[in-house]
Amino acid sequence: MLVPVAPSVYRSPDGKDIRWAGFFTGHRVLDEGRVAGTAQQLLGMDCASVAEHAKRELSPYYADSAGKFPALLLHSATPTLRSLDGDLASLVADQVPHDVATYVEARSVFLGAAADLAVGRTAPWAEAVGHWRIPAVDVGDVEHYYLSHALLTLAIDHERGADTPLGRIIGWLRDRPEAVIRLYALDLEMQIFLLWLRRKTGRHRLVTDANSPAVATRWNRKAHLHPTVEAARTLAEEGLSADALLIAEQLLSEAHQRLGLRIPVLPGYTVPRAGVSREAFVAGVLDAAELLRTRYGLRAAALKPSEAGDGARIVGDLDLTDTARLAAEARAAHPMGDDCLLEAWVDFLPAELDGARLPVVPSGQFRYGLVADGLTLQTLDGFSWRGNSSLDESGWVTLGLPGEAYRTIREALHAIRAAFVGPESLRDGSHQGLATGGVDFAVGSVGGRFGDRLLVGAMDFNLSSHGSEYLRTFQDLARREGVSDRYAATRVFRPAATHTLARMEATAAALAPPGSMMRAVACVPERWGMVAATGPDPGTAAHRTEQLLATLLEAHHPR
Fold it and tell me: For residue range 489-509, what is the model confidence (pLDDT) as tens digits?
């Protein structure tokens, strides 16, 4: 069995004690002041200068396939997505947390090969590098929640003359000038560490598979999809149809104002949080609700945090006439500090996959600067992502879904990529900065002035490494090993305390039919695991993942 770190107590900013137990890292973080201090100590510059240097010294990797060059696997959860906040919120709500910091590290090993070098420190990560036989550097520090914070702390020790594990990383990169650094996100902390690493290796530039700093910080969130309430109120709405109004409002969004981006979206508004008092923030949410009611005739909406990932902190199906409930949810969201969106609640079009009815929440991805083939259909548990199924247009139509919706999403993905290479992106500082990421879409109806008509709308930009990359990497692996199955699926689940990656892999290998592939991707006991399977059609691929999950869970939870 893998053993978590010792239990401890997290003291929240409002003085509440939260028991921290069952995690494979601690909860220590570097606050903004400490992060700024590391920039001064390691680089002799402030954070604004870090961003400028990162533009010049860190480059996105563009290619049509992976595996051409050795890779440094350096996946750290990011404060940008408030991963620690999400785990703490789960504890407060008496829910099972994901231990995001650990699963981000552990699953990244699946991306590796024998020529690569993986960096991490958690027990599930260590098991993965041993199982997959990936060369690795264990940096040891599990007190810090974020790997990036552990690396910055070690870098300071290294500068003071300590013998740290970073010496091996420096030497490995120095000997491999062609290497690519694979990241979860190129946030401020990782920019500082990589700029320091570049200086230590003597290389003029480091190449990463992450998006540029401008894309990683400004665009890896939801707020840019919709106009603010203040901006929306400048629009004269009289005489406009619901569709024309929605298009006109999107032209006031940050995405259009800065990049000229025009893609289908749902009705919604951004409520800014920075520098806004709690009551002013509440008033902003209520104003957004009024606009959704009066402009579009809508009855319900979802309140979404702009900077959270994996469906964290979303409150759905809010009655737009229930101002007391709306105000209460806004007050609860205010302390988290990020902008929020109030967006139309969607009655999702259903699809039947392996006998289960799923809401149609497709995603499209970018790989190595290009729009990836096909789409993936998400499997959700409430608002949390629980896996993907690969779909091309033929597979989409086989599920009884309208081909026009598929093509609309594909066109939107190409429009997004075009925006990041267009003239506006030069002024924005994000030109050619989109290398990886995914965009989630809704397919369904919202009612009101739109009636029962089917809408397609982008809901979320996940412009960092993402879960679908593991599905696509699995498919790449299956193709290299001669598997002819056209489709694949992944599923996320909560492994038992006794689960290990090796045991999961053995079960997968035993269940795989001849000519197919079934694999375990990652295992964080009692927190997060992923399995994958191929199939000749989407339903069979999904069925095999469910069969594998049932076998794994039955073995450790017998009736």
Answer: 999 999 999 999 999 999 999
Euclidean distance between CA atoms 328 and 505, whole angstroms = 46
pTM for this entry? 0.89
Q: What tens digit of pLDDT does each residue of 272-331 get?
A: 988 889 999 999 999 999 999 999 999 999 999 887 665 567 888 899 999 999 999 999
> Which contacts (CB < 8 Å, 24+ apart) does range 510-517 have?
511/544, 511/547, 511/548, 511/551, 512/544, 513/544, 515/483, 515/484, 515/485, 516/483, 516/485, 516/544, 517/474, 517/477, 517/478, 517/481, 517/483, 517/485
Q: For residue 191, give the nearest of 136, 234, 151 by alpha carbon.
A: 151
Biggest CA-to-CA distance, the chain: 71
pLDDT tens track for 91-128: 999 999 999 999 999 999 999 999 999 999 999 999 99
State CA 189 to chain mean position distance: 17
| Overall average pLDDT of the 434-447 stretch | 95
* pLDDT tens digit sequence for 326-343: 999 999 988 887 889 999
> What are the angstrom distances between the C-alpha of 214 and each of 181, 211, 250, 311, 429?
18, 8, 21, 23, 6
Give the span between the Cα atoms of 349 and 405, in whole angstroms: 11
Q: How far apart are CA 166 and CA 170, in angstroms?
A: 6
Residue 1: other Cβ atoms inside 10 A: 10
Residue 308: what pLDDT? 65
Q: Is 244 exposed, middle or buried (0-12, 13-18, 19+ CB in 10 A)?
A: exposed
Contacts of 490 (CB under 8 A, 6+ apart): 387, 388, 467, 470, 471, 474, 521, 530, 531, 532, 545
Inter-CA distances, 544 with 489, 491, 531, 548, 552, Å: 8, 10, 10, 6, 12
Please state, in angstroms and rounded to a whole number, the distance separating the CA atoms of residues 451 and 470. Answer: 38
Whether the CB-CB separation of 363 and 375 falls below 8 Å is answered with: yes
- Can you tell me which residue has the tokens 């892999």? 505
Any idea what DSSP says for residue 334? G
Alpha carbons 506 and 555: distance in angstroms, whole number: 12
Gyration radius from the chain CA atoms: 23
Q: What is the pLDDT of residue 554?
A: 85
What is the per-residue burial (b if ≥16 Cβ within 10 Å, else e) of 310-344? bbbbbbeebebeeeeebbebbeebbebebbbbbbb
> For residue 495, which of 52, 86, 107, 36 has the smallest C-alpha distance?
107
**Residue 226 in contact with residue 341, Cβ under 8 Å?**
yes
* Residue carrying the six token digits 């009636």: 451
Nearest Cα residue to 414 out of 434, 385, 384: 434
In angstroms, the CA 1 to CA 177 distance is 39
CA 457 to CA 195: how far, in whole Å? 38
